[in-house]
Amino acid sequence: MTDPQQQPPPRRARLFLDRALSASAGVVALSALAVSLYQTKIMREQQRASAWPYVRVGHNWDQPGHGYAIHVANDGLGPAVVRAVEVRVDGVARPNWDAVARALLGRDARAYFTTFHRGSVLLPGTERSIVQLPVDSEAVAFWREAQRPLPSDTSRERLEIEACYCSLYDECWRIASDREEPRRVAACEPPRAPWTN
């Protein structure tokens, strides 16, 4: 006769145990997949954050030997690829700095321009003067006219600069000379007038 303690468990109990172990393995596999997907998402966000550009527009007056300057700077962690630039005087888009000077002063100005247009790249930690006027009465007049409020909207200045730039991951922002913070946008729209400087 066989010993009752050595008899195999009933078939039903074995079937339940097999199913319970299979279900447990499935839950563990799904949990591992969920953790892996979440970790991948976090890594992508970290990569994007490590390449995040943060561009600002500023004005400087009386830099030693430079007079008045308008500059752009990338204070972010990644390069900023410029996709659109628009410079307006009195709300009207102008094609270059010569047209800006004529609109502000009624004549050409003796100024030094650098390239800041579609396709320009601002590396992290760099600042670029996009227009400089030497120290003289013309620079003072340019600065005063640029800062003067619009007659139709006193919250805006006569000279307005807007640019749209994107990160290496095609995340885009729009900056403006009258705004402290860049604004996130889905894509960069072309300017009303092509900027040729």
Write structural notes for this entry.
It contains three helices and ten strands. It is of the alpha+beta class and 197 residues long. Strand 1 and strand 2 (67-74) form a beta hairpin. The chain has two domains: 10-50; 55-185, no CATH class. Strands 3, 4, 6, 8, 9 and 10 form a six-stranded antiparallel sheet that branches. The mean pLDDT is 85. The chain has helices spanning 11-50, 97-105, 137-147; strands at 55-63, 67-74, 80-89, 92-94, 112-113, 121-122, 127-133, 159-166, 172-176, 183-185. Keywords: Membrane, Transmembrane, Transmembrane helix. The chain crosses the membrane at residues 20-38.
Q: Mind summarizing the main beta sheet?
A: 6 strands, antiparallel
Tell me the total number of β-strands: 10
Q: Which range does the strand content fall in?
A: 25-35%
Q: Which segments are poorly predicted (pLDDT under 50) over 5 or more consecutive residues?
A: none
The portion of residues assigned to helices is 25-40%
* Terminal Cα span: 103 Å
Question: Brief overview, please?
Answer:
This protein is α+β, with helices and mostly antiparallel strands and 197 residues long.
Features:
single chain, 197 residues, alpha+beta, 6-stranded antiparallel sheet, 4-stranded antiparallel sheet, 3 helices, 10 strands, 30% helix, 29% strand, rod-shaped
Write the topology of this structure.
Layout lengths: L10 H40 L4 E9 L3 E8 L5 E10 L2 E3 L2 H9 L6 E2 L7 E2 L4 E7 L3 H11 L11 E8 L5 E5 L6 E3 L12
Antiparallel strand pairs: 1-2, 2-7, 3-4, 3-6, 3-8, 5-7, 8-9, 9-10
Keywords: Membrane, Transmembrane, Transmembrane helix
